[in-house]
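Hi C.,

You asked whether I'd gotten around to modeling the 167-residue construct. I have! Everything is below, sequence then structure, no commentary in between.
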Amino acid sequence: MKYSGLIKNDFSAGEGVCVSFFTQGCPHQCKGCHNPETWNFSGGKEFTQDTFKEIIEAISANGIQRNFCIMGGEPLCKENAFLTLLVLLEVKKNYPNIKTYIWTGYTYEELLQYPPHEKIPAILEEADYLIDGPFIQEQRDITLKMRGSRNQRIWDLKNKIEITNNF
């Protein structure tokens, strides 16, 4: 399994300080993407037990509890869904009260109706927030919190409601 990278002190992704994990490979390849280096499924680094350890230690490094973000690439495509679920479960096992965020180019409705992988229901059950929709260059808006374009939405997965306007 491959991943693209890890940011241990990310101030720009989710709320507060976060650890951000980037999956490798993306079928969407949106025009103007912020992370085109994550598109190639053959790129990136091998995910190992040491990667798990690095993530878990980074979340509480220096006594600061961080939130956890999963980005891409595309974390919810069939090639990455298994790894996304494994990482999410391990993080939640070690930090049950952590806020977790997942960014995807799929819409929430697509994930519910036409899941790209059978792991999607379990991922949506475990994660706290979903930022959905492809990046659309023509709708780019750098003033939006946690989103790159106006079509993208923020979902509270625990309450199954869109909360875009709260951000």
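If it helps when you're writing up: Strands lie at 2-10, 18-23, 45-46, 67-71, 100-103, 129-132, 153-156, 161-162.

Thanks,
B.
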